[in-house]
Amino acid sequence: MSLQWIPYVWDDLHPATHQEIERIEHELGITFPSAYKETVARYQGTTPHPAVFNVGRGTNVVNVLLTITEDEKWSTYSVMRAYEVVKPHVPEGLYPFAGTPGGEYLCFDYRTSPEQPKVVLVTVEMFIYPVANSFSEFMAHLHDGRVLLA
Q: Residue 122 in contact with residue 86, Cβ under 8 Å?
């Protein structure tokens, strides 16, 4: 199944510039994975379809790929705003990149590997659950949630 991107924050695609991505990286003191930078540059503020991902014994859904571009009207969907929300409650090294319908965040986890961060889910209770070993793996495993019987 091929991945499609559906507008969520804005009515159409709103690409992020290389300079905007570099600015966020500089502010956070990290380097985002290349696959993420390519994706967010084209699809910030959109919803992937399919959007279901596995976490623990269940599933969850990607609601929106957080925005890099500063837009005061839509600041609640920005990477920096999400970071300010989770920063006081989680260990250093977690950086949000997407949100779920339940107000949870998918985050890059740089705690064990600054070069290849893992993907984790941070719940509203600030529990941390592993999701994928990389952003590329995370994206490759998105599905529509249907269980196929053999």
A: yes
Q: How far apart are CA 76 and CA 41, in angstroms?
A: 19
Q: What residues pair up with 129 in beta bridges, in sequence order? A: 121
What would the two tokens of residue 98 be? 């997407």
Q: In CATH, what number is assigned to the domain containing residue 116? A: 3.40.1580.10
Domain span at residue 31 reads: 4-140
Q: How far apart are CA 100 and CA 8, in angstroms?
A: 12
For the cut 70, the answer to whether the pLDDT of residue 24 exceeds it is yes
How confident is the model over 88-135, as pLDDT tens digits?
999 999 999 999 999 999 999 999 998 899 999 999 999 999 999 999
CA distance 36 to 23: 15
Query: For residues 60 and 30, is the Cβ–Cβ distance under 8 A?
Result: no
| 3-class SS of residue 42 | helix
Tokens of 73: 């009207």
